[in-house]
């Protein structure tokens, strides 16, 4: 069952733990994580390899469940069966992955359309919606191109369009510049900043503090725990 909350909190985690069993041993990937992220925030979650940030991302993204604790996403309790969790994920979250995760046999229009198909979005409305978000990322002239015909930066822009097409409550970006050169990476980060300025809630996962510095709040994870959580007052150039 889901339960509504009268709150502007998009993410509210209380005492989240994630335990993996490895033979006769157990590994605590996350330990007593408490985290609240409000509507309109731009948050970077940082930490070294093995710190637990990817596990935290998977739980935030409803790709995995906590072993214990409570996670409320935009007023909905994620302690539910897998089918309901997938429904929540598809409705509430737009994903941007490091390696784009575009389907190579589909053109740009079709790749961006996929989340709408999963939600059963009416065909008569989806065409204009897709064109609108593709125009927003500056690729209106590439609708019929396949991913192999695009640069890395263009493919990430398609991924951003795909993330935006369902009007999600949360944009979850996993190392969004990891496969890009420095110049193109800055362009993508500028786009994320602009989206946040428009009111989109963004959570970005990265190991790179320079990338994290573009966010307005930085959360550091180490050994499965949040060790710091602070507002970022640094002025970042375009």
From TrEMBL:
Record keywords: ATP-binding, Hydrolase, Nucleotide-binding, Transport
One Pfam family per UniProt: ABC_tran
Any one Gene Ontology cellular component term annotated for this protein: membrane protein complex
Entries under SUPFAM superfamilies matching the protein: P-loop containing nucleoside triphosphate hydrolases
GO molecular function ontology, one term from the record: transmembrane transporter activity
Name of this protein: Phosphonate-transporting ATPase
Organism: Clostridium pasteurianum DSM 525 = ATCC 6013
Domain ABC transporter: 11-238
EC number: 3.6.3.28
Family to which this protein belongs: Belongs to the ABC transporter superfamily.
Record CDD domains: ABC_MJ0796_LolCDE_FtsE
Taxonomic superkingdom: Bacteria
InterPro entries for the chain: AAA+_ATPase, ABC_transporter-like_ATP-bd, ABC_transporter-like_CS, MacB-like_ATP-bd, P-loop_NTPase
């Amino acid at each position: 069952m889901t339960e509504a909350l009268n709150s502007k909190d998009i993410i509210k985690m209380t005492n989240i733990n994630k335990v993996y069993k490895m033979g006769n041993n157990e590994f605590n990937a996350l330990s007593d994580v408490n985290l609240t992220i409000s509507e309109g925030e731009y948050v970077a979650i940082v930490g070294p390899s093995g710190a637990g940030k990817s596990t935290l991302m998977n739980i935030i993204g409803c790709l995995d469940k906590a072993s214990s604790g409570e996670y409320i996403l935009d007023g909905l309790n994620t302690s539910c069966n897998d089918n309901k969790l997938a429904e929540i994920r598809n409705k509430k979250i737009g994903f941007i992955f490091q390696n784009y995760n575009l389907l190579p046999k589909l053109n740009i229009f079709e790749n961006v359309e996929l989340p709408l198909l999963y939600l059963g979005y009416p065909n008569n409305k989806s065409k204009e919606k897709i064109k609108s978000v593709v125009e927003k990322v500056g690729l209106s002239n590439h609708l019929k191109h396949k991913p192999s015909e695009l640069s890395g930066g263009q493919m990430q822009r398609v991924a951003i369009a795909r993330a935006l097409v369902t009007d999600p409550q949360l944009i979850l970006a996993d190392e969004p510049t990891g496969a890009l050169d420095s110049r193109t990476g800055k362009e993508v980060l500028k786009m994320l900043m602009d989206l946040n300025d428009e009111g989109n809630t963004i959570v970005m996962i990265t190991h790179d503090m320079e990338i994290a510095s573009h966010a307005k709040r930085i959360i550091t994870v180490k050994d499965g725990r949040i060790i710091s959580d602070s507002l970022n007052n640094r002025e970042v150039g375009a």
